[in-house]
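Slide 14.
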Amino acid sequence: MLQEKAVLKIFRYWRQGVILLGLVLAGWGLRQLFFPSSPPVEVIEDSQPEEKLVVVDVQGAVMKPGVYQLPQGSRVQDLLIACGGLASRADRDWVAKNINRAALLRDGAKFYFPFQGEVQGAVSEGGKININQATAKELEQLPGIGPSFAQKIVNYRLQHGGFRSLEEIMLVEGIGEKLFEKIKDKITL
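Slide 15: predicted structure.
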């Protein structure tokens, strides 16, 4: 009988231990459910579209010449800021007359900012006007080119990094074959 009482006592303690262990595990499970030890990993999708860039080459009298990537829609002024601005020896008068700082940058464009004394003038010895260097005022000397066309030529040159052939001037809005025939013998690169 003593042995039966001991077995019953052990069984009772064992049953209480199992119940206690069950409560501890249930409590731990509830704690993990409502208060996890590490925050859940949250996946955030990038909903913004990839920013489009323009790549532009800038050389000459600037503080940091090189190739720059700027957001699409950037202006020449943004490029000048990115490259540290004009160098102290830059031909600021030429830049003021020939560079439209408000012009939009075109991907692949090249800009050259001359040093003082570097630009000798846009009119060659043969009297031809260099369409890659002439100011709008100098371009107006060409037959059929008034202030409006002259500015369009300068703007095209700035946006496309200069003319690569004489015929390319016909890509300027309003300059067709007829006008090109009038000026082709009076222009040079």
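Speaker note: The two ends are 122 Å apart (CA to CA).
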